[in-house]
Amino acid sequence: MTSKSFERNEILFLFDVDGTLTFPRSTVQPEFEEFFYTKVKPRVTVGIVGGSDLEKMFEQLNGKRILQEFDFIFPENGLVQIEAGKEVGKQNIIQHLGEQTLQRFINYVLRYLSELELPIKRGTFIEFRNGMMNICPIGRQCSREERNMFATYDAEHKIREKMITELKEVFADVDLTYSIGGQISFDVFPHGWDKTYCLRYVEAHYKFKEIHFFGDKTDPGGNDYEIYTDPRVISHKVNTPNDTKRILREILNL
């Protein structure tokens, strides 16, 4: 728990986005945004760390306002580092894995997905980002109703889990980690390039007395698991923005 004796620059609160500050793939609610910026931000240093890229963060958190409102923004698990609205660092999966390995992996994924029978399929099955690949069996160009339908179907049939199990076996020789986040996809990235990566930047430049993390995908295989269980942070599991708000009120005595 934080102490009233701490100054704002001594405490860092890091937040997942999807399911933590917003409902899944929804935009932030105005009342939550108002609470966050007027009650929480004046008390502690605030940052977001998400698996998605910066554009998707803009979509969910009311546009480029976040560049001014958040002290730190860590898209793509922190492989992109933004401080005070300016990009200050970036990692690259192409340079790390090499083109030959990357193509071997992508070709296998596309073959696997071409043979996968699902109730529906749409478009954009692999989304390439700076520090990771996002693989979506249904295709990211699905409607909200189709997204919800696949989430229910996946909960029963374990489509993503089964695919990850096979990829781990086939590519056991490659430096890759697999992480399920959100309703329809999973991320693939080099070992150690999970959300704990953002802590490398934070620790290299700052000496916070406490770092808190708030996230919903905290079980093994979820994209919050590694940072949630990291001994360097005080972690808080949430299921919705309502949980986040309740815990923030408790911690900060709001």
UniProtKB/TrEMBL annotation:
What cofactor does this protein call for? Mg(2+)
**Active site located where?**
D16 (nucleophile), D18 (proton donor/acceptor)
Catalytic activity as recorded in UniProt: alpha-D-mannose 1-phosphate = D-mannose 6-phosphate
Q: What is its EC number?
A: 5.4.2.8
Keywords in UniProt for this one? Answer: Cytoplasm, Isomerase, Magnesium, Metal-binding
* Residues reported to bind Mg(2+) 1: D16, D18, D216, Y228
- One Pfam family, short name please? PMM
Q: In which pathway does it act?
A: Nucleotide-sugar biosynthesis; GDP-alpha-D-mannose biosynthesis; alpha-D-mannose 1-phosphate from D-fructose 6-phosphate: step 2/2
- List where this protein forms a coiled coil: none
The GO cellular component terms are: cytosol
As for subcellular location, the record says: Cytoplasm
For this chain's UniProt record, which GO biological process terms are given?
GDP-mannose biosynthetic process; mannose metabolic process; protein N-linked glycosylation
Name the top EC class.
isomerase
This entry's Gene Ontology molecular function terms read: metal ion binding; phosphomannomutase activity
- Please list the residues that bind Mg(2+) 2: D230
State where alpha-D-mannose 1-phosphate binds: R25, R129, R140, R147, S185, D187
Q: Which NCBIfam families match?
A: HAD-SF-IIB
The UniProt family comment states: Belongs to the eukaryotic PMM family.
| Assembly information from the UniProt record | Homodimer.
Function description: Involved in the synthesis of the GDP-mannose and dolichol-phosphate-mannose required for a number of critical mannosyl transfer reactions.
**Any idea what this protein is called?**
Phosphomannomutase
Source organism of this protein record: Drosophila busckii
